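FAQ: What does a ligand-bound record look like?

Like this one, built around zinc ion:
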Amino acid sequence: MLKQICPKCNKEYTSRPAISRIDNKTRICPACGVIEAIENIIESNKRSKRKKKLVRLVH
Ligand SMILES: [Zn+2]
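The answer part, i.e. the structure of the complex:
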């Protein structure tokens, strides 16, 4: 297996890389891939909450 270094955590990994959501091409380790996925869900939740608040404000 080819060893790769994850640019996010600087750790070596040999499993199949995940693609970073930041630029859609950076290869990161699967663990960081999971972290980014969770961050993405949290961010989109925050965004939709803010949107709902705005919708209530203008009505
Ligand atoms: Zn990593």
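Follow-up question: can I read anything off the structure? Yes, for example: The longest strand covers residues 4-5.
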